[in-house]
Amino acid sequence: MAKSPGKPTRPGFRPGKAPVAAGAPATVTIDSAAPKKKTSLPQFASQVRAEARKIVWPSRKETWITSVMVFIMVLVATLFFWIVDSGLTFLSQVILAIGQ
């Protein structure tokens, strides 16, 4: 449904229908006439094997590069939080010293 040019829209506004509150749950209908087909154990195992064949494992080089990047980010985050913590400690000591 395309917007009409020049006509403002607002959340929950539906032309010709009762307004719906923003974030109201949508109604869901379940078709109970069509029961789900049960999968047998051999079919399930076959489907699992088929999905497992789709897995693409990273190479040793990709794993190494990713691990190094994670280690670098951990060091950067450690340095950042150490600086922030030291700054806040110094600031709180200055504020407490002023109060005495």
Overall description:
There is one protein chain. This protein starts with about 40 loop residues before the first helix and ends with a helix. It has helices spanning about 40-55, 60-100. The chain is built from two helices and no strands. The protein has a domain at about 60-100. By secondary structure, it is mainly α. Helix content is about 55%, strand content about 0%. It is found in: Cell membrane; Membrane.
Please summarize the sheet with the most strands. none
Terminal CA distance reads 68 Å
Which class best fits the helix and strand makeup? mainly alpha
Helix content bin: 40-55%
**Counted beta strands:** 0
Beta-strand residue percentage: under 5%
User: What is the count of DSSP helices, taking H or I runs of 4+ residues?
Assistant: 2
Question: Any idea what the radius of gyration is?
Answer: 30 Å
Low-pLDDT sequence parts: none
Mean pLDDT: 82
Dominant shape = elongated
Secondary-structure element pattern, one letter each:
HH
Brief overview, please?
This protein has two helices and no strands. With 100 residues, it is an all-alpha fold.
List keywords for this structure.
100 residues, mainly alpha, 0% strand, elongated, transmembrane helix, transmembrane
